[in-house]
Amino acid sequence: MLGTLGAPERRRLKGRRPREVEEAGPEPVPTHRATVVRPEPFASRDEAAAWLASLRGDEEALAAAVEVALGVLNRALRARRAATADPWLADVSAERALVARIGYGRGEAVAEGRFGEAVELQRAGARRVKRSMEAPDERFAALLGGREQALAGEELVLRARADVEAGRPREAALQLRVALEALIAELPGAETLHEWRGPVGELANAALRGDPDGDTLSEALAALEAALRRHRHR
Question: How far apart are CA 177 and CA 196, in angstroms?
Fold first, then answer.
């Protein structure tokens, strides 16, 4: 169940007439709430309370429950993206959520954000890489300043990782094949990546028929990510 909260939804920029402004103040934006509901209801309130009690205080179990819900939501977004042919409709992640809650209640009430009982997870915040290892701020400045050029293979590897995390192994395998060839062409001394041409090619071919081997896909993606880390640390 999806809902829009807060400010009225902004109109698309396309087709809007320009207007004179003296100050660029903050523009109100809507907040979207997605509620993922289990297909079968609890038999009783006591059963629902016991389920929530089993999750409370267990950070790993709570995180796993959120990931399951995100998987459902991202499948819905994928369907919407395909139905509307909208390439800008992006997946969502726990790191980008304003808030995540897990609880139970009556269907109509929960859809409106009212629970019988619920727990609110601590905000994960944007995923950060250790500064001593990656120094993303320095590289960001170098990329913006033109002192360094982003690789096409970097973007492709990130898309493959996003596909893996969203449960899209076929798309990830196909993306990985192009990413591998791009990195071999772009990275100096990328001889170690040549050994992945065969396995990644097989993954991509398998993806045309069905889901590829998940272990090989994870290993190949990790190898490309490692090559990029070495490139950034050079």
Answer: 9
Domain membership flag for residue 145: yes
Residue-range definition of the domain harbouring residue 93: 31-120
Q: How far apart are the first and last CA of the chain?
A: 47
Residue 234's SS3 state is: coil
Domain termination site, one of 92, 120, 148: 120
Residues facing residue 102 across a β-bridge: 119
Q: What is the pTM of this model?
A: 0.77
| Residues 184 and 207 occupy one common structural domain | yes
Name the H helices within 23-168. Answer: 45-55, 59-84, 107-111, 131-134, 136-144, 152-165
Same domain, 138 and 222: yes
Paired residues of 119 in beta bridges: 102
Residue 11 lies in a domain: no
> What is the rounded distance in angstroms from the CA atom of residue 142 to the CA atom of residue 80?
36
Greater model confidence, 213 or 134: 213
**pLDDT tens across 194-221, in order?**
999 999 999 999 999 999 999 999 999 9
